[in-house]
Amino acid sequence: MAPRCNHCGASAEIYLDYARLNLCPACFKKFFEKKVKSTVSKYGMIKPGDKVLVAASGGKDSSALLFALKQLYPDVELKALHINLGIFGYSDECEQKFRELVEDLGVDFVVFDLREELGISMDDFRRTVYRRRLCSPCGTIKRYLMNKLAYEGGFTKLATGHNLDDVAEVLLNNYLHGKVEQLVRLKPVLPSIHPKSVAKIKPLWETTEMEDLLYASYQGIPFRTVECPLSAGTRSLRWKRLINDVAGKVRGFKHTFVKSHVNKVLPLLERSTPLPPLVECKSCGMPSSSETCAFCRRIQLVRGPA
Amino acid sequence: MAPRCNHCGASAEIYLDYARLNLCPACFKKFFEKKVKSTVSKYGMIKPGDKVLVAASGGKDSSALLFALKQLYPDVELKALHINLGIFGYSDECEQKFRELVEDLGVDFVVFDLREELGISMDDFRRTVYRRRLCSPCGTIKRYLMNKLAYEGGFTKLATGHNLDDVAEVLLNNYLHGKVEQLVRLKPVLPSIHPKSVAKIKPLWETTEMEDLLYASYQGIPFRTVECPLSAGTRSLRWKRLINDVAGKVRGFKHTFVKSHVNKVLPLLERSTPLPPLVECKSCGMPSSSETCAFCRRIQLVRGPA
User: Fold this and answer.
1) With contact defined as beta carbons under 8 Å apart, do A154 and A196 qualify?
2) Whose CA is closest to B210, among B27, B32, B26?
3) pLDDT (0 to 100) of residue A131
4) Mind telling me how many Å the CA of A236 is from chain B's nearest CA?
5) Orientation of helix B235-249 relative to helix A235-249, angle to 10°
6) Using 50, 70 and 90 to split pLDDT, how confident is the model at B232?
7) Integer Rg of chain A from CA
8) A188 in a structural domain
9) Which of A127, B65, B92, B261 is the most exposed place for a label (fewest CB within 10 A)?
């Protein structure tokens, strides 16, 4: 006999191993939204008067995020930001799905197209990268642009769709390699540390990748189904599989690991890790830990000497 | 064709994946001893004039430790300590192997028999433990007695056979559960923090369980082959298997993880984690973080009200 939903007794479709919970689709959607709301409230992510820019890639996580925030906070000023990275066979579908979603939701939005705005695309970065993967420069570009556009638009919060699997993967890697500067920045809310830096919030901090996927599917949210051709087989994906293997043997591994970091280890690390002083990039004026910021250095590498 | 020893060109019998190294038995023995010597020297574990008590359980790790220390430091004052825990079908073989080893080596030794000295054995602890496993009270008893006997014998160092696998397992568990007090004590040398506490050293901090086993086997060192009947299927053994699975996919996982902890994360945690104040146990006078020390509380539980 099919298992019953632990909340309403209907036929269950979902089993959440970490919570030992069987749920039907309707109760799962409520469960998911309650969880996001609880994360937002626990960490004080959204406060009255906040203007929130939601970075949405067209993927399941950030699409689920945008959808859930719109349901949960109908009165908060939300705007969706999409960055078209110009990756052949990928970025245009991402933008398409993003546009379908914001139209469905009636959410105000902006699209930043790398080729149109900067004259270059992520594909152009290939020749500047010595290792095989472009995830690191792509992350730099996205983080810079998201913050800059949030700052210029007068937003008080920038929301991203990082999920529990993302966090657990980065956490284990940072512990493994002792990356303490990154460890102290791995938190659900990263407050503004410079007048031109906007506070970052991660409302999906406590939902798994699988939960985001299920929520997006059950809500009929449009999201991309193609994988980024530049990230296939990356370290990050291998690590996530590995961590899921561990979670399959140690119930709640990801949840416990991330919670212990935030509640117990992080406060001690923060007390003894001074933040690097930020200056303004001599080229673009945005916050930077070096004379020229990482974004400008990456862009100059691609464009070549002026 | 069989692989060749990377050091001497003879036929190799051992492949160390983390170091991508093929070795013959003779070169492996040198490699192992060089590694132990390097660990001892790097962390300043043994200094001229030190009197070292080596805790030896009769198992492969501590037997390899005692043997290697005797070879490497013939001029250092060494004494071997064995604690007979009184576990049926196990402890007597452990003591037997210990006695064979110290006789072979001509090392001065002492055996502390729980039944003779305290009138109780680990088997008596069963009825005081609500969970299935006795590893936790057994650890308390052993740590207490090792320190007490080292202190009373005037030793300056207490050496134990904890290996890299032990450390990686405890490390991951402490991070997982955010056990910060334990994290700051997980280090190759634990200095004395009370006049009655003797400094602890772990010279096998950088050798794996497999390396200890190979060294003990190739040197013909006697060690127990039975497993502790009280520890079969414990959490610790499951975790070690799990970590070895990860290390099979991420080369050098255990080495990198432990090294990053010691060099990068630990110094920051130590700076912000005050050590709990130690008092003297009102019952036995040994150092304790509470009025009555954990050892005395355990013993009183077994003996019942006076």
Assistant:
1) no
2) B32
3) 58
4) 12
5) 160
6) confident
7) 20
8) yes
9) A127
Residue A292: per-residue pLDDT = 97
Q: Which of chain A's residues have a Cβ under 8 Å away from the Cβ of B265?
A: 175, 178, 180, 183, 269
Please indicate, yes or no, if residue B85 is contained in any of the structural domains. Answer: yes
What number of other Cβ atoms are within 10 A of residue B150's Cβ?
A: 26
Q: Which residues of A touch B176 (CB under 8 A)?
A: 250, 253, 256-257, 260
pLDDT at B274: 80
- Evaluate whether residue B299 is within a structural domain: no
Q: What's the pLDDT score for residue B231?
A: 81
B211, pLDDT greater than 80: yes
SS3 assignment, position B24: coil
Cα–Cα distance between B213 and B189 in angstroms, integer? 23
Give how far Cα B52 sits from Cα of A250, B69, B150, B183, B191, Å.
39, 10, 8, 25, 14
Which of A175, A245, A249, A257 has the highest number of chain B CBs within 10 A, making it the mutation to test binding with B?
A: A175
d(CA B177, CA A259): 8
Reported as a pLDDT band with limits 50, 70 and 90, residue B125 is confident
This prediction's pTM: 0.93
Q: Does A177 touch chain B (CB under 8 A)?
A: yes
- List the single best residue of A260, A266, A270 to mutate versus B (max B Cβ within 10 A): A260
CATH code, A260:
3.40.50.620
Query: So what's the pLDDT on residue B132?
Result: 65
- Whether A11 is in a domain gets the answer no
Instruction: Output the CA torsion sign for B255, B207, A245, B251.
Output: positive
Measure Cα distances from A10 to A24, A25, A27, A214, B24 in Å: 6, 10, 9, 18, 64
- Average of per-residue pLDDT across B12-16: 97
Number of domains in chain B: 1
> CA A247, A250, A252, A257: dihedral to nearest 10 degrees?
-80
Which of B6, B44, B42 has its CA nearest to residue B24? B6
Beta strand spans in chain B (E): 14-16, 21-23, 51-55, 77-84, 109-113, 157-159, 189-190, 199-201, 279-280, 287-288
Side chain identity, residue B30: K
> Average pLDDT over chain A, rounded to whole?
95
For the segment B215-240, the average pLDDT, to the nearest whole number, is 90
Name every residue whose Cβ is closer than 8 Å to that of residue B261 and which is 6 or more positions away in sequence: A175, A178, B171, B183, B186
Q: Please indicate if any CB of chain B lies within 8 Å of the CB of A251.
A: no
Q: For the segment A62-114, what is each residue's pLDDT rounded down to a tens digit? A: 999 999 999 999 999 999 999 999 999 999 999 999 999 999 999 999 999 99
Q: What is the mean pLDDT of residues B44-71?
A: 98
pLDDT for B163 equals 98
Q: Which domain holds residue B48?
A: 28-276
Residue A259 CA, distance from chain mean position: 18
Per-residue three-class SS string for B220-278: CCCCCCCCCCCCCCCHHHHHHHHHHHHHHHCCCHHHHHHHHHHHHHHHHHHHHCCCCCC
- Characterize B195-218 residue by residue with b for buried, 16 or more Cβ atoms within 10 angstroms of its Cβ, and e for exposed: ebbbbbbbbbbbbbbbbbbbbbeb
pLDDT of residue A125: 85
